[in-house]
Amino acid sequence: MPVFRGQKHFRARLTIALVFLAAALAAVLWLAHSKDHDVLWKIVHDKCVPNEETHHNPAPCALVDLSKGGTRGYVILKDRRGIAQFLLIPTQRISGIESPDLLAPDAPNYWAAAWQNRSFVSARVAGKLTWNMVGLAINSSSARSQNQLHIHIDCLRPDVRALLGAHVAEIGTGWTELSFDLSGRRYFARQLAAADLAAQNPFKLLAEGVPGAAQNMGQETLAVVGVSFEPERNGFVLLAARDPFAHAEALLDHSCAVAR
Q: Can you say whether the dihedral through the CA atoms of 179, 183, 187, 191 is positive or negative?
């Protein structure tokens, strides 16, 4: 059967299109497989901890705390994003919020440690942050990029700070749904006295206080935000939401506008 010139051109164009499509698919697959979800763990396990143990230098981390033992410690690492954002990362291999290790009776209180190290954030903006300008957050299992637990420590978004300040009297010591959205999402909230953070682990407060949370921890996102209940009484508001792609990190501001 004779092949006409138009058919030849069509087949040539089709062949070229298929080649480009195959190349594009290969590039997508390469990018997907090359994205390393263990970067944070490698930094902690292969660099920061050995450097601290050998040379008493936490680099590339800002701090390595092994005071409770090598597998119960944590590091503080400057995140690549944001002018002042830091991460608390355990030295124990823990995947994320869904890990049952976080609910063990003797689990370290990483939230208390993260709050104690908020000074790293404040130092990046010349110490301009007050108690109610800082927040901590952890994303749900599907909304994170890394498979090692990390708590974000950063400035609070100005609108979130203002809304919580205006409604703080409505937030009690039990978990209740807020009457307003934060960053486009409705959260459950409860207050916590400043002195109680050291003794009450927010992971456990979430699992024990919000119905269904213990069975769905991987879909939970959690934030611990500094608030002022009264001029002389600081404390925290815990914020939780359940959604496979929920990320309380959205309550934080990586540009740290509150410092300005």
A: negative
Domain range enclosing 229: 90-259
Decide if 65 contacts 113 (C-beta within 8 A).
yes
First to last CA, the chain: 76
Residue 39 lies in a domain: no
Count structural domains, the chain.
1
CA distance 211 to 182: 21
* 50 within domain boundaries: no
Give the sheet arrangement for strand 63-65, strand by strand.
63-65, 74-78, 86-90, 151-155, 134-138, 220-230, 233-242, 185-193, 176-182
- Residue 217 maps to a domain: yes
- The string of pLDDT tens digits covering residues 78-115 is 999 999 999 999 999 999 999 999 999 999 999 999 99
